[in-house]
Design a protein that fits this description.
It is a single chain. This protein has 466 residues and is of the alpha/beta class. The chain has 17 helices and 15 strands. α2 (59-75) runs antiparallel to α13 (353-362). The longest helix is centred in the C-terminal third of the chain and has 35 residues, at 431-465. The protein is globular and about 85 Å long. The protein starts with 13 loop residues before the first helix and ends with a helix.
């Protein structure tokens, strides 16, 4: 398109101007008649909305999500997701949100949701989920529950997990146990423990059937093995309840049975988890509680002839089918994110059944959906994924309590539990003051949440209506 003249100076009489105008008009008509038709100018390209997506995953887990990001970016031109691996995301995301410069979306652990939500750091997703046709009935109950807090939906799931008993079949065979039959009660697990025990000629421990401290990730959850709850909606924490005391006494039975010094010496010889020196792979511990991710480490670090099985972890409660710890990775939109609608478009894309299955297959995990395609189990590399799926659909699940002081509670219980495992029977005396201290913190933070909710509720309602 040629530039238009900025100025035109013409001096003539009115008559001449009229004649000139007629001439120009005739010339224009002639030119229009003989001119070639021109192609309409293309509309200028609209730059895509660029979303910054922070995610905690590394290695093959990161690559699995990156592949989904690449496919989403290739499927349309309106939104471009920029995938950014971030270490220590739980701290950095809060800082970025508080500073007014959050990413557009982030992948975090579900247990962080209460802290983020009650610190006014997340965007509620209820209306966005309804418009996208995403409903809780489509997901495993514990998964959808983990995405909600205080009556609002704050997240969408990605990859969940549940724990199970893993046992070393070769060690069972050497101890005269049926390698295909795991213990079904906690009492039976301890009976197996005695048979699996190996000492050298000097009485030093070489192998233990099971240790509640291995790997030491579940100390706060052992109360569920005795039928107790970590937290009660009406009464709050249950740190000094009879079930917690039973769990501590169980832990305290180990140093009495096997010797506190010998247990510590055995543990000091354990190698790192992600290595061939993992005590489960070397046969120093014959039974552990782990999730479906354990398959990845068995594949990468265990001996080629390593034989193992998976079953529900046995419970101390008579008639119980077992218990399991349930968790999930989730996607969230931080408060103050620049493009929440576009961010949710990507989250909804990830939550399409075919994409969730693809992600969970690549990460060797469970699907968060109730309905799973037949291909999912056929293609899954973990030979026990159906067992994990059955556990995930069972009623014996325990998850993190929906309170902001969970991390403090967990740390305090871990310390007390470790003391009990070292033979310090006074650790039981720590439970009552722990209960009082955590309950006070919980009530104080609950009051703060009510203030946040009161100030933000109208904003959330407007967000819900838009």
């Amino acid at each position: 398109m040629s530039p238009r003249p900025q100025h035109l100076l013409f001096i003539a009489s009115p008559g001449r101007l009229f004649v000139l105008a007629l001439a120009l008009a005739a010339t224009a008509v002639a030119l229009c008649g003989c001119a070639r038709p021109t192609t309409a100018s293309a509309a200028p390209a609209v730059a895509p909305v660029v979303l910054d997506y922070w995610e905690k995953w590394t290695g093959f887990e990161a690559e699995a999500m990156r592949a989904l990001v690449d496919d989403f970016n290739a499927s349309q031109s309106r939104i471009r997701v920029r995938y950014l691996p971030v270490s220590q995301i739980e701290r950095k995301l809060l800082l970025a949100t508080a500073g007014g410069n959050p990413p557009d979306l982030a992948g975090i652990y579900a247990y962080l949701l209460p802290v983020y939500a009650e610190n006014n750091a997340l965007t509620p997703l209820d209306s966005l989920a309804r418009r996208a046709g995403l409903h809780g009935a489509d997901y495993l109950p514990f998964v959808w529950a983990a995405c909600r807090h205080q009556g609002f939906l704050w997240a969408l799931p990605t990859t969940p997990a549940v724990t199970a008993l893993h046992w070393n079949k070769k060690a069972f065979r050497e101890a005269g146990l049926d390698p295909e039959r795991p213990p079904r009660t906690l009492a039976e697990l301890e009976a197996f423990n005695d048979k699996l025990l190996v000492r050298d000629a000097d009485g030093r421990l070489l192998r233990l059937g099971h240790s509640p401290q291995e790997p030491g990730w579940w100390n706060a959850y052992w109360v569920a093995c005795f039928g107790g709850a970590l937290w009660d909606p009406a009464a709050g924490f249950r740190a000094d309840g009879p079930e917690m005391q039973a769990a501590f006494r169980w832990a305290g039975s180990y140093p009495r049975r096997f010797g506190a010094h010998e247990l510590q010496r055995l543990r000091n010889g354990f190698g790192s988890f992600a290595s061939p020196q993992n005590p489960f792979f070397t046969g120093r511990v014959a039974m552990v509680m782990q999730g479906p991710w354990m398959f990845n480490f068995i594949r990468d670090f265990a001996p080629a002839d390593f034989e193992w099985g998976v079953a529900p972890f046995p419970s101390a409660v008579p008639g119980s089918p077992g218990f399991a710890i349930a968790e999930s990775d989730v996607l969230v939109i931080p408060a103050g994110a620049r493009h929440p609608a576009e961010a949710f478009t990507f989250m909804a894309y990830v939550n399409r059944p075919e994409n969730l299955e693809r992600l969970c297959l690549a990460q060797k995990k469970l699907s968060p959906l109730r309905a799973v395609s037949a291909d999912f189990y056929t293609k899954h590399s973990n030979p026990y994924i159906r067992d994990f799926a059955a556990i995930a659909a069972s009623e014996g699940l325990v998850s993190f309590p929906p309170v902001t002081v969970w991390s403090e509670y967990q740390d305090a219980l871990n310390n007390a539990f470790d003391l009990m495992c070292l033979g310090d029977r006074d650790a039981l005396d720590l439970l009552a003051p722990l209960q009082a201290r955590l309950r006070e913190q919980e009530l104080r933070k609950q009051a703060r949440w009510e203030r946040v909710r009161a100030t933000r509720l109208e904003e959330w309602k407007r967000h819900d209506q838009n």
